[in-house]
Structure formats: structure tokens, C-alpha cells
Amino acid sequence: MNKAYFSKVSHTMSWDELKLNISKQKKNDIKPLPYEILIEIFISPCDFDKLSICLSKAPLLYKPYAAQSIATSQGIWTCILIRCFNNSKNVLIYTAGNIYPLYASILDF
Fold this sequence. Notes:
It is built from three helices and six strands; from the N terminus they run E-E-H-E-H-H-E-E-E. By secondary structure, it is of the alpha+beta class.
């Protein structure tokens, strides 16, 4: 089962802030949450740089899948993975069926 550290997404949260929040969770022995990937969306480095500035501005990238990003009956979050084409940068988004990201994580590849 896949597990990740998730952080609540604010209107101004950047990728660097998310990375810092995840590091704090690991340091404080917070337990990661189970997830599954609904879809992987690959974007250009330029687009990922724009997304990195403010994670809440990603809805157009995953709008067709947002309603499907919900928890299963077993409590596993169904997430949308947005990845950069030419490097390992990524963001895992959980919307709880909304258009905007509710929680986000970064996967280690």
C-alpha cells in the first residue's frame, strides 16, 4: 500500500512550503496516510515552475479528474499526481471531490 505525508493546501502554498511541511511531519514521527493514484499528469518544466509558486492554481490541469479524487470505502485517498517531464519534481493532490486541492504531498522517486 502506498503511503505519503499530506499537508493542507492554503491559497498561497508553494511547492517549497509543502516540502518543508512534509519534512516537519517526518521529523515529528507523524504517520503517513494511504493513497492510490487516479491519474498521472505530466507537465513541462516551465508549467511546473508556475505551479510551484502556488499549488492552489492547478485546477485546469486536473479538472476532469477532480470529482474522482475522493476517499475509498477503506479510507484510502484517491489522488492526482502531477509530474514534471524531465526531472523528479512532482505534487500529489487530493481534492475530496472539489475543484481545488485540499491536501497535497510530494513523492520520492
